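Lecture 7 notes: from sequence to structure.
We start with the chain below.
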Amino acid sequence: TAEIPTETETPKPTDKPTETPIPATETPVQPTDTPEPTSTPKPTSTTRPQPTPTPEVDTAAALAYANEVLAIINTMSSASFDMADAMTSVSNNPYLLTDDNWKINFAVTLVTMEIAASNLLDLEPPDDWPVLLEVDDHLIQVANYVLLATERLTYGIDNIDVDAIEDGTNYFLLATAEMNEVTRILDEFNAQ
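Predicted structure tokens for the same chain:
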């Protein structure tokens, strides 16, 4: 059986330092002298950057354009309500398609929408307002959808063509979605 030592002997210090070999891949670190402190340099004045001048923009023209657009959109919205009422009436009573008074009132509504669409196409947004150029893109869509809608509805009413009436109604829904986007953008613009 093997004996298990009960005490471990602690090595005793010697007076002579031992040489620890330095591996060949390491370079011994040599101490360096501490540099003398230097005085802190005095601050120098620096030129503050000047803000870039913003181009002159015609705020009055932009607001006039936005207000003109909103006035036309309001006219179109009012006519849209009249058209919706007329379409609801005719869906409840299809014989109205042959009623001259109903047809005249509906024609007036369509003409109002066509004039408003033409007015939208005639507007020129100020070039120095990117947001208004974006609005103009939507307005062109609104006008085109309205003109397609009035054309299809006129044909549908005159010829009692349900498919044409449905096409015209769908074009008005597309125009309405674009008008809502224009109104949202202009409301944000006017709030600035």
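Points to note: Residues 79 and 112 are 7 Å apart (CA to CA). Residues 59-92 form the longest helix (34 residues).
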